[in-house]
Design brief:
The protein is of the alpha+beta class and 249 residues long. It has 10 helices and 5 strands, in the order ββαβββααααααααα. Helix content is 36%, strand content 12%. It has a 5-stranded mixed beta sheet. Bound molecules: iron/sulfur cluster (2 copies) and FE2/S2 (inorganic) cluster. The site of FE2/S2 (inorganic) cluster has 13 residues, from loops.
């Protein structure tokens, strides 16, 4: 077992059935890597957005099974962590074009009819590692309130922990993804500034610019990138605007 010197306090945790001495005050990923674990799966962005590092865990003080993104959650002495196994979920293929007379709501319920079988046990909400009210958005999908469902499920990292625990065999994240897609495709007003930006991509000016970029060597591209106009790292929200504001919404 590898250890690094320092002032860390060492605690013992179990990961995938094996005991490890790890430094306290670190995330599960960081602590386990310090102890020599090399993650080849159950790891991705390391920033709490991809959901790949989802794990279930228990602590000695609390018998309740919990879930966490291992790149975000701190280790606790005596905890047992088990990375979430991969198992395929019901994931439908579909076209965002709707057949004549079909509404987005009916389409999503046809794709994921099991949503109607929710028994409101709350297990999904309880287990979600990012604190989403999963049962709440399942209800919104059932009621056809896609605006609310899209907002409520927006921060979902698609980890599937909720689906793993659902007694009604609902794939909540996939149903929510479909609801967000159909909501975006059919129910939200088109963003005019995006349309303007798309049109601009096809102008002769823009094409000339692309041709110029393609002729540049790596050094010129690097310089151009470093000189680019960008938002300062530290600026209060709403205080910075680019020079060309014509494509802003
Ligand atoms: S809603 Fe489900 S899939 Fe999405 S983050 Fe929460 S537990 Fe993971
Ligand atoms: S776990 Fe399944 S059945 Fe229970 S509330 Fe969530 S969606 Fe409904
Ligand atoms: S590695 Fe992506 S959420 Fe943890």
């Amino acid at each position: 077992m590898m250890m690094t010197p320092g002032n860390d306090q060492w605690i013992t945790i179990h990961y995938d059935g094996e005991p490890y001495k790890v430094p306290s005050g670190r995330t599960m990923v960081s602590a386990l890597e310090t102890a020599g674990v090399r993650f080849v799966r159950s790891i991705g962005c390391r920033g709490g957005v991809c959901g790949a590092c989802t794990a279930f865990y228990r602590t000695p003080e609390d018998a309740q099974l919990k879930s966490a993104l291992m790149c975000q959650e701190e280790v606790v002495d005596g905890m047992s962590i088990m990375p979430m196994p991969f198992f395929p979920q019901n994931q439908m293929s579909y076209d965002l074009e709707l057949p004549k007379g079909m509404t987005p709501q009916r389409q999503v319920m046809q794709l994921y009819p099991e949503v109607g079988g929710c028994i409101m046990c709350q297990e999904c909400t309880r287990i979600c590692p990012v604190g989403i009210d999963v049962m709440g958005y399942v209800g919104m999908i059932k009621r056809g309130d896609f605006k609310a469902a899209a907002e409520a499920s927006f921060t979902c990292v698609q980890c599937q922990a909720c689906a793993a625990r659902c007694p009604a065999r609902i794939s909540q994240p996939n149903a929510a993804l479909a609801a967000r897609r159909f909501y975006g495709a059919h129910m939200v007003n088109r963003a005019e500034h995006l349309q303007k930006a798309r049109e601009k991509v096809n102008t002769e000016d823009m094409k000339r610019g692309f041709r110029r970029l393609k002729r540049m060597d790596a050094e010129e591209l690097k310089n151009l990138y470093q000189r680019r106009e960008s938002e300062p790292a530290q600026s209060a929200p709403g205080t910075w605007l680019p020079e060309d504001t014509t494509l802003l919404g």
